[in-house]
Amino acid sequence: MEFNEDKIEEQDGDFVEIYSQKAIFWFSVFSFIYGGVLLIINLRAAGYKKAIAEVAAFMIVYYIASAFAVIALNIKVDLSTIKMASSGVQVPPDVMKSMLILSAVSILINVIGGLVLTRYFFKKYFPDDDYYPRPVLQPVIIFILIYLAFRFIM
To answer: Which of 17, 36, 37, 146 ranks highest by number of CB atoms within 10 Å?
Structure first.
């Protein structure tokens, strides 16, 4: 069995290293904005500079629309309730119910945003699997650091 090393080297130039569709979706479950940033990094690495504006515009419009949707649902959660729940104090069920509804709505919004990012935009610009999946360790560490920074600020 003989290997043609020249052919392998030629193929390396055709492939680009980007974050996978699964990685973008699962980061989007926590924050569709973070998933969108990963998709923008992919688009830039692949040379789709004009598509970056399209994805950024979607993210801005979707963020505003989701904020209006949450406001329209009229879910009331006080900051004192959040602090009480995070300190380990027993929270009354009626107060906890509003926090759980808000969390479920937030996750639903993020999942829908992640589906649009991966099923529409990712498939539009990366229809074939002609890329090497980029390691997600660095985005995971950055995400944890951002989360911890916001956790200590509040």
So the answer is: 36
CB neighbour list of residue 63: distance below 8 Å, 6 or more residues apart: 33
Round to whole Å and give the CA distance between 23 and 35. Answer: 8
Residue 149 C-alpha from the chain's centroid: 18
CA distance 15 to 129: 9
Structural contact between residues 52 and 44, judged by C-beta atoms closer than 8 angstroms: yes
57-105 per-position pLDDT tens digit:
999 999 999 999 999 998 887 777 778 777 878 888 877 888 889 899 9
Question: Count of H helices and E strands in the chain?
Answer: 8, 2
pLDDT tens-digit map of 131-152: 888 999 999 999 999 988 987 8
